[in-house]
Structure formats: C-alpha cells, structure tokens
C-alpha cells in the first residue's frame, strides 16, 4: 500500500527504553510484527472515502445515562458514622498529618 509506514525493531527497543520496560528478544520481534500489523490496518482505513461522512461524538446513541440528581433525607449522625473505623463523639477521627 502506498504511504504505508513500518516500525523498525530499533524503534520498538527505543520505545521500550523510554517506558523503562525490559523486553526479551522474542518480545521485541513479536511487538515489531504487531505494531506493523496495526499500522497496516490504519493504512486500510486511510483508503476509505469519508468526505461525506459526518463526524460522530459518540459511537453509541446514549444520552446522559446518569440518574437524576434529587435531594433526599440526610443521614443521621449515627448512620453516617456507623462504619467509621474511629470516631470521637459525633465526628470521624483521623490521624494527624504534619
């Protein structure tokens, strides 16, 4: 394919060095092949005609899947503190941070 890019083994080694990842010889070879396969897929995608395709913000038509925010009855002091590891009266107790 025209304009197809390739990743060299040296580039894989350089990226691994930047990421502070130690790769075996087999991993270097495997990742070089996998990166080049990924780039080949992108080259195929680049051949598609997308001029008349409108951009999409989301691939799934979901709109605000969060529940509606409603004010409710507040927790009592006892309910709020029932799972506190430590408490002092009506307050959470936490270690001092200096």
Keywords:
Histone, subunit A; single chain; 98 residues; mainly alpha; 3 helices
Description:
The chain is built from three helices and two strands; from the N terminus they run H-H-H-E-E. It has helices spanning 9-18, 25-46, 77-81, and strands at residues 87-88, 91-92. Strands 1-2 form a two-stranded antiparallel sheet. It is mainly α and 98 residues long. It has a domain at 9-46: Histone, subunit A (Orthogonal Bundle). Strand 1 and strand 2 form a beta hairpin.
Oligomer: single chain
Discrete helix count: 3
Structural category: mainly alpha
Helical percent range?
Answer: 25-40%
Q: How much of the sequence is in beta strands?
A: under 5%
CATH fold category name of the domain at 9-46: Histone, subunit A
Order of helices and strands: HHHEE
User: Which strands sit side by side, in order, in the main sheet?
Assistant: 1-2
Q: Which term fits the overall shape?
A: flat
Q: Give the low-confidence spans.
A: none
Number of strands: 2
Return the average pLDDT rounded to an integer: 89
Largest sheet: 2 strands, antiparallel
Give a quick precis of the structure.
The protein has 98 residues and is mainly α. It is built from 3 helices and 2 strands.
Write the layout of secondary structure elements.
Blueprint: H1 9-18, H2 25-46, H3 77-81, E1 87-88, E2 91-92
Antiparallel strand pairs: 1-2
């Amino acid at each position: 394919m025209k304009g197809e890019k390739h990743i060299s083994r040296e580039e894989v080694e350089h990226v691994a060095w930047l990421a502070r990842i130690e790769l075996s010889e087999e991993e270097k070879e495997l990742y070089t092949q996998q990166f080049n396969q990924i780039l080949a897929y992108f080259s195929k995608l680049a051949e598609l005609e997308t001029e008349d395709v409108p951009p999409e913000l989301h691939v799934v038509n979901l709109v605000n899947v969060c529940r509606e925010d409603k004010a409710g009855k507040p927790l009592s002091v006892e309910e709020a503190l029932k799972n506190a590891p430590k408490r002092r009266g009506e307050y959470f107790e936490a270690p001092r941070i200096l």
